[in-house]
Specification:
Blueprint (H helix, E strand, L loop, with lengths): L3 H6 L1 H10 L6 H37 L5 H32 L20 E6 L12 H8 L2 E2 H8 L5 E2 L1 H20 L4 E2 L5 E3 H6 L11 E6 L1 E3 H28 L3 H22 L3 E3 L7 H7 L12 H13 L5 E6 L4 H5 L6 E3 L5 E10 L18 E11 L4 H19 L3 E5 L11 E9 L4 E10 L3 H6 L2 E3 L7 E2 L1 E9 H11 L7 E2 L13 E2 L4
Length: 535
């Protein structure tokens, strides 16, 4: 998220940055909202000060035995005005923050300007593509012919854009991940981490995936856990008068005319309620996050109603909550991670860390899940674009002063993976219009795929500056200083395991369709040197 103070001082720079990203100018609209926020805040503070002064004068007037009615009327009016000003401030703040949440990061001055991929700049190449004495095959042709890659069965299980790997290809995928983790942890100082694969909305917001890119994520639901007694007693206090009226009417209309039947049932249920209260008073229970509705309560209380119900309302509320929980649930939306960047970057969310401890360097091997919204028709064959894939992620948390050097270091770590695997690649500086939402500068590493006779992205290493840190509230403090500042966050693939598997298969294929195992992976393949067909 961008700093509104910076926008206030640099509106032209913001609009220029947005134009470079292919977006419409927004500075003027943001400044109008910002002025509304500040005006409402000032109005609230002035009105509150007037009210406090009037309140003091009421006390002074009463101490002198004077009539304070007029001053009291002023206080009541000032209270209403203060509330209105506060409501206006909250509404304007929500609108401003909502708009800021959808604005991308400002590109670094070194980033090439242009809307397309082709507007980027190639920085360097490594390795020479192999000259094949035969026409190289696509990875999916190789995998299917060998019998170790099955798209048909995957489609039956999960639909399009999934793959079933088996035998030595599944082992090769695991070997790639193990090799990458060992390299990054033992030689490059990254700390291996195993993060959650499901994250909350705020976590996805922190890295910039929400709210703008919700369609790219897979969402699921998790029941909300609440303390039963807190929920029920809060709603009991809120609805007590209406509840008593409803229950009295219910008793009058139903219990009195059927007293024997209901009293027998109620004695039974009151004993059950006592046991329920004793066993649940200090436990967390899954409880529906519902606004207790009078009609729902009356209906749910059928089995608990009795002549004692108006005296036993709190106990009945416990039984009602327990009954209604079985049929109603509140759910929190959870998101499957599209990359481990999301949980790893948020490890410093709402934290203040000592600058002396930075940089933090995290790596994780996780499955990743992407809906690939807008990717219809792209890379429909094979494993290049999947809904589920594996990746080794790199994340660094640094200071402003370390940020640029850390970006170069991260890209070098990812490059080393490709060098050790003997895979030709090039490094590409993305243009302003081709960068990700949160990035201020991005290097793409592109590996050579001989069957396509081109380079394809296998890693993106991005410096996000303090953009993500402002969203997730990650700060650092220098030794001996009281003030804090936002950290800088960086992320990169170190590298995408599925695409590395594709690159190894295509670059190490032989004329008979077998695949030679790269030297760097042989220690992880239990002596297997070549992947042959299923027998």
């Amino acid at each position: 998220m961008l700093d509104i103070d910076w926008i206030r001082d640099n509106p032209e720079a913001l609009d220029r940055a947005l134009a470079n990203r292919g977006a419409e100018p927004l500075a003027q609209h943001l400044l109008v909202l910002d002025a509304r926020v500040r005006a409402a805040k000032t109005r609230f503070q002035v009105t509150k000060a007037k009210r406090n002064d009037a309140s003091r004068r009421i006390g002074q007037a009463k101490a002198k035995g004077e009539d304070a009615a007029a001053i009291m009327a002023d206080v009541a009016q000032l209270k209403d005005e203060a509330q209105k000003a506060q409501d206006d401030e909250r509404a304007a703040t929500a609108e401003l923050e909502g708009m800021l949440a959808t604005i991308p990061n400002v590109p670094d001055s070194a980033v090439p300007v242009g809307p397309r991929y082709e507007d980027g700049t190639e920085l360097r190449r490594w390795g020479t593509p192999r000259a094949f004495p035969f026409k190289p095959k696509e990875h999916y042709e190789l995998g299917e012919a060998l019998g170790w890659m099955d798209f048909e069965r995957a489609a039956r299980l999960s639909g399009a854009r999934f793959t079933v790997l088996s035998g030595p290809l599944a082992r090769l995928e695991r070997a790639l991940a193990q090799f990458m983790l060992d390299l990054h942890t033992s030689e490059f100082g990254y700390e291996e981490t195993s993060p959650p694969l499901l994250v909350r909305e705020q976590t996805a917001f922190g890295t910039g995936n929400l709210p703008k890119f919700a369609d790219d994520l897979f969402a699921t639901k998790k029941p909300i856990e609440e303390k039963v007694h807190e929920l029920v007693l809060t709603e009991f206090d809120r609805n007590i008068k209406g509840l008593r009226d409803v229950f009295k009417k219910y008793i009058r209309d139903n219990i009195i005319s059927n007293s024997d039947f209901f009293l027998r049932r109620s004695n039974n249920n009151l004993r059950k309620m006592q046991k329920f209260l004793i066993s649940n008073s200090n436990k967390n229970t899954n409880v529906c996050s519902f606004m207790l509705n009078i009609n729902d309560i009356a209906e749910a209380s059928l089995s608990a109603a009795s002549g004692l119900i108006t005296e036993k309302l709190p106990s009945v509320m416990w039984e009602i909550a327990n009954t209604m929980t079985k049929s109603k649930q509140a759910f929190e939306t959870m998101y499957l991670i599209p990359t481990a960047e999301m949980p790893l970057t948020n490890l410093v969310a709402d934290q203040i860390v000592d600058e002396d401890r930075l940089p933090f360097r995290f790596t994780a091997f996780t499955p990743c899940f992407r809906s690939e919204a807008g990717a219809a028709g792209k890379d429909t064959r094979g494993m290049l674009r999947q809904h589920q894939f594996y990746k080794v992620e790199l994340v660094s948390i640094t200071t402003l002063e370390q940020s640029e050097a850390e970006h170069e270091r991260m890209a070098a770590c990812a490059e080393e993976v490709l060098k050790r695997l003997g895979l030709p690649y090039r490094v590409f500086l993305l243009s302003t219009g081709d960068m990700g939402f949160a990035a201020r500068r991005t290097y793409d590493l592109e590996v050579w795929l001989p069957a396509q006779n081109t380079y394809r992205e296998i890693s993106s290493c991005s410096n996000c500056g303090d953009f993500q840190a402002r969203r997730l509230k990650g700060r650092c403090r220098a030794k001996g200083q009281k003030g804090t500042r936002f950290v800088h966050t960086l992320n990169g693939s170190g590298i995408a395991v599925g695409r590395a598997l594709i690159a190894v298969m295509e670059n190490y294929q032989e004329a008979d369709g077998t695949i030679t195992v790269p030297d760097a992976l042989k220690p992880y393949m239990d002596g297997l040197n070549r992947i042959g067909p299923r027998l």
